[in-house]
Amino acid sequence: MPATAPDPHPVTAPDSHPGGGPALRSGSLGTADIAFFVVSAAAPLTVMAGVAPLAILLGGIGAPVGYLLAGLTLAVFAVGFTTMSRHVRSGGAFYAYVTRGLGRSVGVGAALLALVGYNGMEIGVYGLLGTATRDTAHSLFGADIPWLPVSLAGLLLIGYGGYRSIDFGAKLLGVLLTAETGILTLLAVAVLVKGGAHGLSLHSFTPGNVLVPGTAAVLAFAFAAFTGFESTVIYRREARDPARTVPRATYIAVGFLGLFYAFVVWTVVQAFGDAEVVKAAGTDPVGLFFSAITTYVGAWAADLMHILIVTSVLASLLAFHNAINRYGLALAEEGILPRALARVHPRHRSPYVAGIAQTVLGAAVVLGFAAAGADPYGQLLLWVNTPGMLGLMTLQVLAALAVPLYFRRVHHTEGVLRTVVAPVAAAVFLIAAIVLVVAHLDLFTGASTTVNTLLAAVVPAVFLAGLALARWLRLHRPAVHERFAAEPTRAGSGEVPQAAG
Question: For 385-413, how does the pLDDT look when each residue is reduced to its tens digit (9 = 90+)?
Answer without folding.
Answer: 999 999 999 999 999 999 999 999 988 88
